[in-house]
Every structure is written in structure tokens, then in C-alpha cells.
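New to this. Comment on this protein:
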Amino acid sequence: MLNAMLRVEFLREGRSIRLPILIIFINSILAFMTILFIFFNNESTQVGYYAGRSTFLAQFLIISTFQIAIIFLLMPFFVSSIEENEESISDHLLMIPGIVKYYVASKVYISVATSLLVFVSSLPIISLSCIYSGLSLMKMVRLFGTIFLLSFWSSSIAVFFYSLGGKVFFSFIRTIFAYFMFSFGIILLLEIIRAADLSISSSGEISAAVRNLSMALNLLNPLTVYAGYYGNVVGNTGYLSSYFGNYGVDVTGTTFSFLYYKLAAVFCGMTGVAFLYMSVRFFRREK
């Protein structure tokens, strides 16, 4: 049984014209990219260049990475549209004990469902690149899991800042800032710490404390979840190997690839749950 708030959200979003327009727009971009790749491969073949599996694999990674990037670009707008529609309703929710958690959960459900609907609608396009690259169906399942996890993570953060109350514009700015700090902010912070550690180190090596700190903080970085997806598709750790190599961490082992990426996914989900709890706990705190 759907709770009443979630049922209202499903009906409202289902009747909105924004969702089909969004699906058409995103799929048009993906279709244009796919057609562009096909023309590129044909032209390359005519001039004697062989478009092998690696070429199609790179195209699949570009398209799938674009789909993942869409989550972070559009999630604040998804939550913002829900918040604007329900601003008059939410004022009366605090009068009903226990209803806030259903209200918050319904906004997260709708935001995640919208992201997954966009992904499902683009399956015919991305499956074409998947088939040409010779990837198995499990790679598509892995992509679906990555999109679901990052959708939950990003929607929980967005719902938290919008649930605090206040102006919608400031909630949007705080959401974008949180996305940046959890992703690139962690990388910049660790680079500053690494540079400072090297400047005071007599041996010219990274200390064990900085190395362990980099491992711990990157568990909170959603880009680590993406790196796990990238490594699963390509078959190697890729750029993450070079990144952690700067901290003296060997990531080429099978144990690291299996455990660290899975642990990062767990922490990503736990971060989303923590923001959901804070959304209920600090609901309309700034209003």
C-alpha cells in the first residue's frame, strides 16, 4: 500500500508535462551522441581505421557517464519542483504526529523514481552501444544499480536542504555546494593535506596517517562509486589507480577492487539514510 503522500506525488508527477519533455530531451541527446559515434566509426573505417571493441566500449562509457552526470545536474530541480508544488500543504503537516517521515520519504521516492524512469526510457539507445561493445547484460545491471544508488544519495541530500525551509533558491545553492564538497571538495582537501605532508616529510614519502585518511574520506565520495562502475566495465582500476598511487596505495589487487568499491557503495547508501533522518529531524527548522 502506498501512503497518501506518495500516492498524491505519483498522480501529480504522472500528469505533469515536465516529465515527458525531460525524457524526450535527454533521449534526444543520447540518440544524437549514438548517431554521431556511428558516423565517426563509418568514416574511420573508410579511411582504414579499424573500429574495434575498445572504440565501442569507450562510447558506452561516455553515454553511461552522461546518464550518471544527469542525476547530479537534475536532482535539485526534481526536488525543487516537488517543494514548490507542496509549499502550501507542508505547513499543515506538523500538526499530524508522525506524518513528516512519510512526507520526506515520498519526495525521495519520487525523485529516485524519476531518475530510474529516465534511465529505463533510454535503454534502447544505450543497449545499442552495449551490444556493439560486446558487454554482457550484467554490465547494464551494474549501471542500473549505480544510478539507483547515486539517485538515492543525491535525492536524500537535496530533500534535506529543501526540508529545512527558507527560500527555494538558497536550498538549491546549498544542495549544489554539498554535491561539490562531497565529490571534488574531498579530493581538493586531500590534495592540500598531501602537499602539506610532503613539505614537512624528510623522507619525501606520504605518511601512513595521510594515506589512511585518504582511504577513509574517499569512502564518502560518490565518485568512488562511479570509479567502481568504471573498473567493472573496463576491467581495471583506471584513473583511480593513478589517484591513489599519489598516496602510496596499491589498488591493483583483486581484494581492493572487490572490497573497497563495495564498502564505498555501502557508505554512499548510509550517507543517504543519514540525510533522510536529518530531513525528518530538522524539518522546517528555518521556517
